[in-house]
Amino acid sequence: MEDLAFQDSIFRNFTKPDGRLKSMPSQKKKKLVVLEYLIQKLDPAKAYNEKDVNEFIKQFHEDFCTIRREFVINGFVTRENSVYTVNEKEKWNKWQDL
């Protein structure tokens, strides 16, 4: 229950009513909550080209380059030959571990 309360507070502080991000959190734990929220909206069975990933991220925030890079750095996606695939959850950096 504590985890849900933490996630809810992050969403209230960093998202607008329409679901777009006001800003990207600078604290790693909070950033991972937001990244996990976003990545769960992608289909894990699908491969995405870079343009598709950029368009997806732009729905939530204009800085798609930084968010795309954070997806890769934190193990949410794998990039190979400019094709992105969502990793299984075991590979994700977990905010709960911080």
TrEMBL record:
InterPro entries: DUF2087 (IPR018656). It comes from Fictibacillus iocasae. Residues 20-85 form the DUF2087 domain. This is DUF2087 domain-containing protein. Pfam families: DUF2087. It comes from the Bacteria.
